What we know:
This protein is mainly alpha-helical. Among the domains are: about 150 residues, no CATH class; about 100 residues. Helices cover about 70% and strands about 0% of the residues. The protein has a two-stranded antiparallel sheet. Helix 2 packs antiparallel against helix 4. The longest helix has about 70 residues. It is flat, with a radius of gyration of 53 Å.
Amino acid sequence: IQFAAPPPPIASSVLLERSQETKGVARKKEKWRPTALDGLESRERALQAEVQALLDAQSAGLVQGLGGDRISECGSVSGGSSTPTSHSIRARSESRSGGGGIVPVRQPKRRPVGLRGARRGLLRDMGELAVLKTEGLHILDDEIVRREDILQQVSTWESRIAGAREKLNSHNSHETGESELEREEAAVDNEIQEMEERLQQLRNRKRMLGQQREEAVNKREARLSSYRGALRETEAQVREFLKRPPVLARMSDEDGFYTLHHSRRTLGMAREWWEREAGTLRTKREETSKEKDALEEGAGMWQNAIEAVNTFEDELRAQMAGGEVGKELFRGQIKKMGDVIGVLGGILDQAQERGWNL
Length: 358
């Protein structure tokens, strides 16, 4: 058993009896009173604190070695431990009254626990924790049953209230039946009058709609005539466009739009043809742009190569013209020549890596 962090030390305490005045105030304010489940949780926390203390003792014993177990074998849990046990915790929880305060009691100095004693104590505490969990299950089952009984009673009351209200509403509707019929008869009369007025309005509306329909037909025919003229004009422009395209074809090696007679060409065919030509031109533009960038960057690399070679040649000419001859001079020139070759090799590798073959 392991815990995230050791719990705070639990000091033994004594529960004092509440005075009569304090009990009266608590009864008026209906303060919270501990239940059996709360007592179990308190006992469980105490046992967990004891288990943590035993785990610490076991860790200390393991650090000291097996010899450390003989230090206080008599101080093991089985022979009487200074750490709180389930019996001491149970005694303290039973001594609690309805409203007393907690007064800490001075504890004797805790004797060290050996390695074996800590292990026996852990085994015992795990058993007691299991017993506490069993008691908690019984208490929770009882509480669940009590609440289910309360919910059943609430459901019964709700059903009774709903049934009584339904009966009341049904009796009220029977008592007002005659007045409802009278109101309905008057409403029917009003509806008949409204429908007669509405019928007259519909007849007038029909005559007006007929006149508006004739006017709309005349306007529509006039618009259609203008649309037909615009369509004929556009079709004539399309025929002229397909007969003499404004842009010459660049993909003359392919069969397609330009190989057909102009009478068989369509706008869809023209769109497909020029979309392909536009794609080809975009691809060519991208290639041209890449070549331009490569030439500009390659020119810079070539400039660096020329400067490296020219510098080496200028130094070599100056030394030869000055009559300087010697082994050290040749070694220096050979070293400089190697540096220049290295620079040129790097430039060559970079050009080959990018596929430049100019």
